[in-house]
Amino acid sequence: MTCGRRFIRKLVHKMIKKYIDNERGRIFYWDSGQMRECTIIFFHGLTADHTLFDCQLAFWTEKYRVITWDMPLHGESRPYRDFSFANAAEDLRQIMEKEEITHAVLAGQSAGGYVAQAFVQYYPEMADAFISIDSTPFGMKYYKKSELFWTDHYSAIARIYPYKLYCRAAASSSSRTEKARQSFYESLCRLGKKGMMEAADAYYKELPNCSEVIFPCPVLLILGEYDRTGYVSKYTRAWSRETGYPLLVIPDAAHNSNYDNPEFFNQKTEEFIAAACGFS
Known about the structure:
Helix content is 44%, strand content 17%. The protein has a single domain (5-275), classed as 3-Layer(aba) Sandwich (Rossmann fold). An 8-stranded mixed β-sheet has the order 1-2-4-3-5-6-7-8, with helices on both faces. By secondary structure, it is an alpha/beta fold. GO terms for molecular function: hydrolase activity. InterPro entries: AB_hydrolase_1, AB_hydrolase_fold, AB_hydrolase_sf. Keywords: Hydrolase.
């Protein structure tokens, strides 16, 4: 499926921009709007925004209702007060309630996978399936303390670098294709250095307090072939070995694997959903 910038802009215009308000802030989301048998909700990663899934729109909106959103402290969902994974999950529940969506497939990239896992913990009856995209599991048994240094000090380390240099380095290391690098670079620039540090501190401080999720639904773990971000590859493979959840490796892709190789990602992910959930 074509994923050129001009083609993407046309599709984005077809997504309906909406928001909810609560005591924590205003949370923005984008809705394809069709009434479908199945809804898929995409959760972007840390310091990205809803545009991370632009290359999924054409494929998924043909058969599914699609929701993308700017998670709390990202994109247009700022300012935001009192962040926690539980509150972010509650924000999504409010979105689904507003749209009269009772259940959905949850697909979370990187730290978006954390919010999706939290949603399953709090609202298990609303999850049709969980798809982890270059993310890692809840549960400290998977992590060594020495390996958590990078996440514990992420914003402090990033603070040292000139922000434009940081944005270029982060985009280059997270993506394998130029279109994916440029998209992530632009989202980082929109977020700004203060926003990046605020989001990183909020999301990473939550992780050690999260217990492993017992999923009541089918699970697919996805990993970019060239994902070198932190210990994501190591943790994802351990997650698959420990639980037996299937692991799908996306060829010619790095940490933002859904954007690096959208054709392979879309096809294989839909095969999983069709087999696991019985959607036609």
